Every structure is written in structure tokens, then in C-alpha cells.
Amino acid sequence: MQLLHLDSSANHTESLSRQLTALYAETWRRAAAGAHYRHRDLVTSPIPPLNAAYCTLGRRVERRGPVPLDCVDGMIETPEERQQWASTRPLIEELRGATTLVAGVPMYNFGVPAAFKAWLDRVSFPSAFHDPRDGGSLLRDTRVVLVCTRGGAYGAGSPMAGNDFQIPYLRAYLAHAGVREEHLRVVEVELTAAELLPHLAAYRSRAAESLASARAQVIALAREHGR
Ligand SMILES: Cc1cc2nc3c(=O)[nH]c(=O)nc-3n(C[C@H](O)[C@H](O)[C@H](O)COP(=O)(O)O)c2cc1C
């Protein structure tokens, strides 16, 4: 069993997604004593944005069809491509090796933080998740827990419901990458800005309920997944 723990909130001191992913990781590690654990902070150790060499190598690999990662080494033609592959392959291997991924992904400007998107773009290299033996997804058995915080409320029927490009986007991406729906859990924390903004003061108790529910969900999921 291996847990990969990602954080992408730029806020280090008061981040709720960081608190909740840490709670998940602590609980999981207690339940799965001795199992492998890796924490990657996408803010303090940012993933470099993609460049031309990444795209050139990616297109060459894509043209060949799904290949084992070792084959990519033999397809590199320039030092820039080698450098790009060197900063990509370990991230792919880290994700492929994880039995469970827990990621803190706040809503930033209706979408996901650039720090998280940089990771997602880089690990989505051609052949990254394809089993070359049968073309299936190597993420089909991976469990994924997303902790999605947002300052406002985007539930069905709320005035902002149509502006949620965070959770629907993450669900669409993971489904496309081959993560099975029954393996995906999204823990949502809404109205986190209610404590801060006077015009949202009326929503403080709803925000507190949302956070308490998220804490309970995180603990229950971590206990179940760490067994
Ligand atoms: C750059 C930035 C953009 C944000 N954009 C939105 C937004 O579009 N909608 C929203 O509801 N909250 C937005 N927020 C509020 C965050 O989603 C909220 O504070 C959340 O709790 C952040 O996660 P964290 O507590 O883990 O840091 C934004 C916050 C920041 C820093």
C-alpha cells in the first residue's frame, strides 16, 4: 500500500484543504502502519510548466501508441527533451505506484490552482497511464480522495452552481484517466469565506457544518482505505 499526498493551497497557515489532507494522511498512516507514504507540496516545490521539448517528445511517443515508460528513454533526441523527461517520469511513477491519492485542491477563480494544474499537465504525458499489455488504465485500481475547498457555495440550485469548474473538471479528468467512479471520493468544504466576509456572516453555521462533515468524511475514508 502506498499513499501519495498532494497539497496545492498557496496558503500555508490557515488552509483548510491542507488541514484535511493532513488529517487524512495521519489517520491512514496509523491504520496502515509501515506502509509507504509520500507528501508532495506543489506550492513549496512547484512543478515546472510544460515547454516545447515536452510537447515534441510527447507527440513522438503519442504517434507510437501506448509504450512502456522505459521505451520513452530510447526516443529522446535532445538534451532539452531528456531534461523534460527527467522531471516528468518520477511524477508519473509516483502516481502509478500509489494505491491511494489524496489531494487538496481549493477553488481558485472557479477552477483549480495553477500549482495543481501544472502537476496534472505534466503527469498526463502520453502513455503515462496506459497499460501497454491491454491498453487499459493503470489507474483503474487507484483510490482517489479529493479535498475541494471553496469560499462560496456551488451546490445544485445555488446562484453560482454553473460556475463550478473545479469539481466537475476534476471528475471529468479522473474519469478520462481511468479512475473508476467507485474509487473516487470528493470531500467538499463550502463557504469557507463566511468567517472572513461580513456579507456572508449569515452562512457561518452552514460553513461550520460543512467543515465538520468534511472532517468526519476524511477520518472515515482514511480508516477504510488504510485497512
Ligand atoms: C487566488 C484565489 C482565488 C479564489 N477564487 C475563488 C472562487 O472563484 N470562488 C470561491 O468560491 N472561492 C475562491 N477563493 C476562496 C478559496 O476557494 C477558499 O479560501 C478556500 O478555502 C481555499 O482553500 P484553502 O483553505 O485550502 O487555502 C479563492 C481564493 C484564492 C486565494
Describe this structure in a few short sentences:
This protein has helices spanning 16-31, 52-64, 69-73, 79-86, 89-97, 114-123, 167-177, 204-226; strands at residues 2-7, 36-41, 100-104, 143-149, 184-189.
Task: Write up this protein.
This protein is of the alpha/beta class and 227 residues long. Helices cover 42% and strands 13% of the residues. It is built from eight helices and five strands. The chain has helices at residues 16-31, 52-64, 69-73, 79-86, 89-97, 114-123, 167-177, 204-226, and strands spanning 2-7, 36-41, 100-104, 143-149, 184-189. The chain has a five-stranded parallel sheet, sandwiched between helices. Helix 2 packs across helix 4. The radius of gyration is 19 Å and the shape is globular. The model has no long low-confidence stretch (mean pLDDT 97). The protein binds flavin mononucleotide. The site of flavin mononucleotide has 18 residues, from helix 1.
SSE map:
Layout: E1 2-7, H1 16-31, E2 36-41, H2 52-64, H3 69-73, H4 79-86, H5 89-97, E3 100-104, H6 114-123, E4 143-149, H7 167-177, E5 184-189, H8 204-226
Flavin mononucleotide binds at residues 9, 11, 15-18, 104, 106-110, 149-152, 192-193.
